[in-house]
Each structure stands twice: as C-alpha cells, then as structure tokens.
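lol ok so funny story. i was supposed to be doing the assay writeup but got distracted and ended up predicting the structure for this chain instead. priorities right. anyway since i did it might as well share w the group, maybe its usefull for someone
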Amino acid sequence: MPPRSAPGRANAAATRPGPSGAGNHFIEVDRVDRVLDEAAARRFGLFEGQVVAQIHCGSRGLGHQVCTDYVGSFQRAVRTYGIDLPDRELVCAP
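and the output, tada:
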C-alpha cells in the first residue's frame, strides 16, 4: 500500500510554491520573481515568471565530503581575515 499524506497536506502543498519533504530530502518548486544578473540567468536558461525546481535526495558521503572541504576552506579564510565567530562550524568568507 502506498504511503499516505496527513489529511489536507497534499492540497496545501499543491496550492503554493515552496519546499516539500523533510531534512536532507526535499523538492522545492518556485517561480523566478526577478532576474538580478541577466548574463548569469541566460547561462542557466532562467527568465522571469519561469517555474523552477530544486531537488535534493541526500548525497551521504559526497555531501559530507564537500561540506567538510568547504568548511575547512572557510575556516582558513576566517583566520586569515581575523573574523571572530562563536562556533567553528559557523563559517563565512569575505
């Protein structure tokens, strides 16, 4: 038997854009409201009014490795620029 949604949940999701799913597994449907960089939008084939989807189904090892690499890189930038942060995983780069 297929899984069932909570009563009314499917109707609510169908009437508005945004995410559906939980945690590391989701799909998000949006509409391009405005384009701020025309050249970048052209490269990605995006235009105002277009409906777009983002899908993430969890990448386990790959996602963890990419995150670890970038957190390490950003931690070096934080030290280089003397940025004081309350948590070592709360990183940024100028």
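The CA atoms of residues 18 and 76 lie 34 Å apart. The longest helix spans residues 61-80.
back to the writeup now i swear
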